[in-house]
Amino acid sequence: MQKKSLKILLIAFMLSLSACSLLQTEPIDETRNWSAQKLYAEARDELKAGGYDKSIKYFEKLESRYPFGTYAQQAQMDIAYAYYRSGDQAQALAAVERFIKLHPNHPNVDYMYYLRGLINFNDKLSLFDFVARQDLTERDPRAVREAFDSFKLLIDRFPNSIYAQDARDRLAYLVDAMARYDVHVANYYFRRGAYLAAANRAQQVVREFKDTPAVEDALYIMMRSYDALGMPELRDDAARVFKQNFPNSELVASGGKRREKASPWWKIW
User: Which pTM was predicted?
Assistant: First the structure.
């Protein structure tokens, strides 16, 4: 009798759970009756207000529900920008690449090349480490070079783009950044007694970045490295070029150390 009562209670409990589950309803989607125009307007408002997650959600709904309209293409571009502003570099780059692949002839595709450059330009582990004075030999300069390639591609393909001049300014900065990185690495090698590696890396700066301020430092490292290696002819050649181009250099008197400047070299705008 007791077992039978227990079974009845168990069955009643299971039926009550089933009834509760039937009564439960899905959350109401407030956007279900929105037009493409309404979805886009709400998504843009969220984007402007800094609600990046919600704006991305709205843009994705728009693209899914109205995939063939002009709003869908604009939503794809705005999704990339929203991810960029939210700090999600991987998703932002993926969205940019997707748009370029789907719409290579879009009238605003130049903006996507520009955005790709910006995403890499602002990579937190690349060129802005100069500002924080972190040890750049511990950082991967890949993002700097990828930003350079993106901006250069924009300029080559769309020289009259409204983004071209800003891309050129950033390219100048990036060239300096890459040259300074190589100088930093050359100094790293020199301090550890790897004089041949230091000389080769400094020579690379002179060869590839000849119009940058970093050449002065590179030539000085070459002089000291060749001197440490017992190569007087190469040392004298480097010294001759150094003195000819930088007769008033402070590096010799300071032992290779530069004085702090009121306006850092990286502030180009």
Answer: 0.72
